[in-house]
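re: ur question from yesterday

yeah so i grabbed the chain u mentioned. its 123 aa long if i counted rite. heres the sequnce exactly as i have it in my notes:
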Amino acid sequence: TQLPSWVFNLNDETKGIARKLKEGISSNVFVGDNVMVSIVRIEPHTAGTLHNHPEEQWGFLLEGECTRVQGDEEFAAVAGDFWQTPGNVMHTIRTGEKGAVVLDIFSPPREAYKTAGEGFGQQ
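ran it thru and got these structure tokens back, copy pasting raw so excuse formatting
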């Protein structure tokens, strides 16, 4: 069944803007007028890059487990946990035995993520 153009599916990686954030971390980005959504897939035993950006970010751990690093704190997250990151706060994520699927929401949309490419924000 063909979905309407405004309906998306978490498991359909053919829609959205593909970005490779780092080896083992990929995302599909969907851009709205005021909000951006990114479905991030993180392989087991993978660490992101410590970075920041001016946009506010909310992250929802949909599947798996991870350690969320934000500022000088770390949190062992399980599926169902979610977090809020103010703009310009240093943060990253890492996985252990299990990988993770995270739904990130940015407001306003991140300019760097509006096109396909590679990399995180400022480091």
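noticed a couple things. DSSP finds no helices and nine strands in the chain. also The chain has a mean pLDDT of 94.
anyway ttyl
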